[in-house]
Amino acid sequence: MKIKTDIEQKDFLTIKEASKWASEFLNREITENNISYLISYGKINKYNNNGAVLVSINELKRYYEENVLKKEKIIKEKLGKDINWELSFDWIPERERTKHVHRLHPYKGKFIPQLVEYFLKRYFKEGDIVLDPFVGSGTTLIQANEMNIHSIGIDISEFNTIITEVKFANVNLGELQRKINEILKSLKIYEENNHILEFEKELRQQLEQFNKVNFPSPEFKKEFREGKITKEYLVEKQNEFLQIYQELIQKHSISLSQENGNSFLDKWYIPSVREEAQKILDIIKSIKDENIKKTLMVILSRTVRSVRATTHMDLDRLKEPQYTPYYCYKHFKICKPVFSLIPTFKKYANDTVKRLAEYKNLKTNAFQEVLTGDSRTINIFEEVKKKNEEFYKLLKDRKITGIFTSPPYVGQIDYHEQHAYAYELFGIKRRDELEIGPLYKGKGKEARESYIEGITQVLKNSLKYMIENPTIIIVANDEYNLYPEIAQRSGLKIVEEYKRPVLNRTSRDKNAYYESVFVMKRE
Fold first, then answer.
1. Which fold has domain 85-169+356-522?
2. How far apart are CA 267 and CA 138, in angstroms?
């Protein structure tokens, strides 16, 4: 008979004890922050004992049984028995899935570094050269370098290659910090001479007080989850604060929208934010050091993405501009549009310096190069030669060992459009027409045939620069079973297929699914 531990015999636990208990109960790491999140969002109750915060072990157990274990059981039944569950990496804390430079800039459709590590360890060794012909935000290149594997990435999107290059560039962090301080000083002067600062301060104070009275946390969140809050109440409170907001807008003479509204930046940004972004951009343009210039571009882009005039729930999928306060289903209170990007820019700038420093300490001497171009036709040797003669000589001698990549999924993402704000802000040329399998082309028969041909051309072109028997590893959500034909047309055969469950989703659609990891060899 199992003897209960001291913790199991208690009715109530401290947050630290609850973290330990939950980790053992679920057989994965559950942090104190995870427990605090459950309390703050009204998923479990908080109890006080002489100033100490306690939780009920019975409530905690019931929550995990009903919302975690039950869900996992359903997922396992849905996805089937031949799933490689170890490839879900769902036990990996979020901070590890987005470690160091992997969170330098948001990017739809990227895979987690642990997946790259798993397969590189299995099929590659130190000194090999791995190619990612759909490099995206550079996860393959970053992890390959940590393992002392040389790497080349290619992408049709110039902004994608900028994000990747910044992650591994040898940036002078001291000089970068000086430029950041220069920008912040310039913005402070601008802010002090601008009425936005006073308006934002007054608006924030009014909003905090309003939310405190009408949406007390965690009590309100708990009632909301229990269905005790009507939609009419939310609309009533939203309209109530809207009156306060409009009075402040008139008092401080705030402009809410651009005069013409034709461009992306006109439509999705409040004028004061546009002005601040332009001031930062003017400073960036004057910088001669390309590494620092591109790093600041990525910081500004990340900032600009976060301050679009939309609701927090629609940040990934823009619907209509939001210039007024609104009830936020993500934060369970009234939220407002952003009128100044300065706090966000400062936060992301500090975060970027920290993450670059972390990765700098992990980097090996392995070569890394990222190329902007069409993977169907690009001359890899010649393009690497233009950027790094030493790597070119090694590449010509050894050739590429294999591929680890995740191509676009059919009709799922418009890769240029996801960074539309950056292309317009920086004046970067878009090549949407060269994307393979974009969302705007749909998922019909013609789109699928075009996709098969596009991926086939990429593989055929890549094989020209590879060893005699390379290893090709492709991560794909192959819902239309296209990859057997892609392999056959490319002169390859699928020698192994892993079915990987995708459980940790960052988008609003959190339905679990599986994606295939195909391992291919020459016929």
1. Rossmann fold (3.40.50)
2. 30
- Any residues with CB less than 8 A from the CB of 512 and at least 6 apart, and which? 75, 78, 79, 501, 502, 503, 505
For residue 465, the SS3 value is: coil
Give pLDDT tens digits for 247-287.
999 999 888 876 666 788 989 999 999 999 999 999 999 99
Angle made by CA atoms 181, 361, 140, in degrees to the nearest 5: 100
Asked if 348 and 299 count as a contact pair (C-beta separation under 8 A), the reply is yes
Give every residue of the chain whose pLDDT is below 50, as ranges: 1-4, 7-8, 505-509
Q: What's the pLDDT at 50?
A: 82
Report the C-alpha gap between 403 and 394 in whole angstroms.
17
Residue 218 preceded by cis peptide, ω within 30: yes
Q: Which residue has the tokens 């030669």?
A: 385
- Determine how many CB atoms are found less than 10 A away from the CB of residue 80: 10
Domain(s) labelled CATH 3.40.50.150 in the chain stretch across: 85-169+356-522
Buried b (16+ CB within 10 A) or exposed e, 142-152: bbbbbbebbbb
User: Which DSSP helix (H) or strand (E) runs through 334?
Assistant: strand 333-335
pLDDT in tens, 213-249: 999 988 898 888 889 999 999 999 999 999 999 999 9
Closest CA to 337 of 321, 328, 356, 324: 324
Q: Which residues pair with 368 in a beta bridge?
A: 151
pLDDT recorded at residue 333: 95
d(CA 149, CA 140): 10
473 SS3 class: strand
427-484 residue pLDDT tens: 999 999 999 999 999 999 999 999 999 999 999 999 999 999 999 999 999 999 999 9
End-to-end CA distance of the chain: 57
Q: Which helix (H) or strand (E) holds 469?
A: strand 466-476
Q: In what order do the strands lie in the sheet with 47-49?
A: 12-14, 52-56, 47-49
CB-based contacts of 146: which residues, under 8 Å, 6+ apart?
A: 117, 362, 363, 364
* 473, β-bridge pairs: 404, 519
Cα separation, 163 vs 177, in Å, equals: 19
Judged by DSSP in three states, 386 sits in: helix
Task: State if pTM tops 0.85.
Answer: yes
142 neighbors 101 (Cβ within 8 angstroms)? yes
